[in-house]
């Protein structure tokens, strides 16, 4: 599709590494949730050993994607240090503009006003001003925290004396647990087991919000195609999207003179 001045309205929303990261993250998270609940509840759809093996296979994939590939994708965007910082804050940090959009979303729920655009591409700058639903910007911070907690607790549940390069990581984590757990009248292992399960339920809740609520609207399904396959967004579909063209700013200035 083309705009009135023959500019293309199709832009790259996700790079190939963005799509790989999201796909691996989604698969690993779903497998970890299912196998984790199997290990905890004893469901009999597979053996304990198979569930544990699958669980441990998915762990390095999830951590590598979230702690290596996704940060690489984020900070490979933008030009120069300040450009990268600006890209990060615009795309992943909940700010005043996101609060305004969230307010508009709440008003729309009560049938007061239009659902605000949260996927905004600026042609003059050559990049997105924002591409995430404001609720997702909140969930990203919580997900990062939950991922850290579930990884830390998972270490001692896997092996109490786990170490890497001679560093007694498991013992350090257990020592921290021994300081916190007595406050809840628990042992360190009991505390970490409850924490691990609580974070699992958090990820289930986040999955329901992310997929079952925010993106259950058919008009949002275009983003599934973009994140899993094409990587492109067509701004001729204006549902939740806005394409800011170069000439529109010039016309706005000219119009203000009259």
Automatic annotation (TrEMBL):
GO biological process, one term: respiratory electron transport chain
Transmembrane parts of this sequence: 20-41, 53-75, 138-158, 164-184, 191-213
Classification via SUPFAM superfamilies: Transmembrane di-heme cytochromes (SSF81342)
This protein's UniProt keywords: Membrane, Oxidoreductase, Transmembrane, Transmembrane helix
One example GO MF annotation: Methanosarcina-phenazine hydrogenase activity
GO CC terms of this entry: membrane
Keyword Iron-sulfur: no
EC number: 1.12.98.3
Protein name: Methanophenazine hydrogenase cytochrome b subunit
Native source species: Methanosarcina thermophila (strain ATCC 43570 / DSM 1825 / OCM 12 / VKM B-1830 / TM-1)
């Amino acid at each position: 599709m083309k705009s009135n001045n023959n500019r293309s309205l199709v832009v790259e929303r996700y790079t190939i590494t963005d799509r790989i990261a999201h796909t691996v993250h989604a698969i690993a998270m779903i497998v970890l949730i299912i196998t984790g609940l199997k290990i905890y509840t004893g469901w009999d759809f597979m053996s304990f050993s198979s569930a544990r093996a699958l669980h441990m296979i998915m762990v390095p994939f999830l951590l590598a994607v979230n702690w290596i590939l996704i940060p690489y994708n984020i900070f490979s965007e933008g030009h120069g240090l300040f450009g990268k910082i600006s890209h990060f804050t615009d795309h992943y940090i909940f700010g005043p503009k996101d609060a305004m959009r969230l307010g508009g979303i709440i008003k729309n729920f009560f049938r007061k006003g239009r659902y605000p655009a949260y996927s905004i591409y600026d042609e003059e700058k050559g990049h997105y001003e924002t591409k995430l639903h404001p609720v997702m910007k909140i969930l990203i911070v919580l997900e990062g925290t939950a991922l850290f907690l579930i990884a830390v607790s998972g270490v001692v549940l896997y092996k109490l004396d786990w170490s890497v390069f001679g560093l007694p990581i498991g013992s350090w984590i257990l020592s921290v647990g021994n300081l916190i757990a007595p406050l809840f009248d628990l042992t360190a292992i009991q505390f970490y087991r409850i924490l691990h399960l609580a974070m699992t339920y958090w990820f289930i809740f986040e999955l329901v919000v992310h997929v079952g609520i925010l993106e259950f609207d058919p008009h949002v399904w275009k983003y599934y195609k973009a994140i899993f396959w094409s990587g492109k967004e067509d701004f001729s579909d204006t549902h939740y999207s806005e394409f800011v063209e170069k000439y529109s700013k010039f016309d706005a200035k000219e119009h203000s003179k009259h």
